[in-house]
Amino acid sequence: MASNKFDVEATTLMVEELRGTFNAGKTRSYEWRVAQLKGIIKMMDDREQEIIEALRLDLGKPEFESAVYEIGMLKSSCARALKELKHWMMPEKVKSSIVAFPSSAEIVSEPLGAVLIISAWNYPILLSLDPIVGAVAAGNVAVLKPSEIAPASSSLLAKYVPEYLDSSAIRVVEGGVPETTALLDQKWDKIFYTGNGRVGRIVMAAAVKHLTPVVLELGGKSPVIVDSDVNLKVAVKRIIAGKWGLNNGQACISADYIITTKDFVPKLVDSLKHQLEKFYGINPLESKDLSRIVNSNHFDRLTKLLDEEKVSSKIIHGGQSDRAQLKIAPTILLDVPEDSLIMSEEIFGPLLPILTVDRLEESFDFIRSRSKPLAAYLFTNRKKLKDEFVRTISAGGIAINDIALHLVVPSLPYGGVGESGMGSYHGKFSFDVFSHKKSVLYRSFVADAPARYPPYSQGKLRL
Ligand code: NAD
Predict the structure, then answer these.
(1) Is 78 a catalytic residue?
(2) Dihedral sign from CA coordinates of 27, 410, 126, 128
(3) Per the residue annotation, which of 65, 78, 179, 252 is the catalytic one?
(4) 16 C-beta neighbours (distance < 10 Å), count
């Protein structure tokens, strides 16, 4: 079955076929895994322009962002896996115990079996294929369900994945809720879901039925604390790149809101306005360097956040929008009420509220009083503040003096905590998350200790 049309029976048959491939052992060899990783790189190279075009159709994504943050990141993920795979696959020798003397012990990474990857729309190529990198590197068969909200990217994946990867082991199923529900009804060895927490709960509930482990890559409100002791010019450029430069704020680890001090906020706001104009011009709705909003539902959701009565008067920069083109300008709001909608839900778009406090330390309590975010950021030169932030703020990941860049360090695990998700991937963590770590103990027949065998006695207990 090539992929695609929703059908419960066909879904069951597809999973059976995939399990047949897995059980035949085809996906376990080093060579098979390498061929799939090379296939992904070749697909990126051969189809680069078509991918850029699909991302332009789905999101108006600037070519630079598509080339760097989707294609480039995916290729470097494959390249790293290719470089390290032999080493990752090797059993890890570990110390045995005196209780089992003489013996040796090792941890063997084995593939889990059949895995389901459900992906989101905002980075529709990267978020679909990067988990596949981990799944195939670890020797699994997989079904990928891209997001229907990015239809051009989804159909591109359905068209080219079978051409570049082994379709007896990797399938793409397009569709929305009914198709995903049918997939979730199957028995999987792992479900890897990227998206919002509401659906994350549906995924987890479905997984319970078969006792399937899940990875949930969710979102949240990622805060940015800005101290007055900073290199303001650099900080502001990085904040803009980490907010509007990431898909116009439609990124899970982009800056959701800023907290700074009342004294410092005028300087910060001036600098943000100045730099935004330098980057995107005086009419940002015309800028070719900003993605548009993905669809009218999300456009309406975002403008509703701005329309709330207690919020609309707080706009100090931007605020322009064009529904016909699904564009919203970079917008800054100052001191919105904490109980407003914009401060209650993840923004996931080009709106940036700034909250102010008397002493910066108060911002730590504010963050700690809310759900644990996917990312938390601090801009400061002060070592004491950095130390306290890292020690006391719980988040999926932290970057100091930058935004989102921790994501590109493959030796760091990428994932959430609490409401922002569970499980992590990237680099070797991607291999590990799709592997079972099997404990293996090797014993010989020599030196068999009689004390463990009955009849038991007080004397044996004292040994
Ligand atoms: P989305 O609407 O594309 O949904 C994600 C997936 O869930 C899709 O494949 C969709 O078909 C499926 N889905 C939707 N409703 C479903 C249902 N009722 N039952 C089963 N499946 C269903 O994406 P989204 O949720 O709007 O994505 C945005 C969210 O994802 C944000 O919260 C963002 O922070 C988060 N996100 C997280 C990461 C990460 O790496 N942690 C990356 C991107 C996005």
Answers:
(1) no
(2) positive
(3) 252
(4) 11
Compute and round to an integer the Cα radius of gyration of the chain. Answer: 25
Tens-place pLDDT, residues 276-324: 999 999 999 999 999 999 999 999 999 999 999 999 999 999 999 999 9
ipTM of the complex: 0.98
Mean pLDDT value across residues 5-32 = 93
From its phi and psi, is residue 302 left (phi > 0), alpha (psi between -120 and 50) or beta? alpha
pLDDT in tens, 144-153: 999 999 999 9
Q: Chain centroid to CA 296: how far?
A: 24
CA distance linking residue 74 with residue 67, whole number of Å? 10
| Separation of CA 119 and ligand 1 centre (Å) | 6
Q: Cβ(174)–Cβ(3) under 8 Å?
A: yes
Q: Could you tell me if the CB of 219 is within 6 A of ligand 1?
A: yes
Cα–Cα distances (Å) from 310 to 212, 305, 328, 335, 363, in that order, read: 44, 10, 20, 10, 22
pTM, two decimal places: 0.96
